[in-house]
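User: Hello, can you help with two protein structures?

Assistant: Certainly.
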Amino acid sequence: MKAADVRTKSEDELKEQLLSLRKEAFNLRFQKASGQLENTARARLVRRDIARIKTVLRQKTQPAVQES
């Protein structure tokens, strides 16, 4: 997922996507612990997508900071 795609979505859409990504991360952790994880790179991508969504949500909720 690209940052530009994340920025075009509404806050509600981002929160829903964040919830689904957290569930996926949880399932991936369980698969890793039980030795069933096949695509190890997916865990890294999910973590980064979660961070990207959280960053954009934070930017949307905070007022713009003016530099002096």
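That covers the first. Now for the second protein you mentioned:
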Amino acid sequence: MSESQEEPSLHERVEKWLAREMPIIQMHGGTSAVRTADPDTGEVIIELGGGCSGCSVSDVTTGNIEAELLKWDEIEDITVRVPDARDQLGGPDQAESIMGIDRTEGGRGDWGSSNPGKDHL
């Protein structure tokens, strides 16, 4: 079998399943990442972030993901983590932009700042 004909890895299949079966994550501003997908042990770890952090129904989403993926023969143990938003962004004292999220003045950047800087219009 050539490389292009190989079956996708467990990691790739879980990622594709998340994108196909759980579009609500992205629709609500969330993100998902497969951190571990070990076909030898059957362990899968998924981390949800973005809008999922601090979401009041993230426990429902995690439960649905766990219930569905445990039906897969090759998955023995599934963990879905939703980090606290403060942990994910570096805490309340970190003002700089992280991964495109601007934490200054409600995400408006310098527009709401009392010191808008030299490039302010």
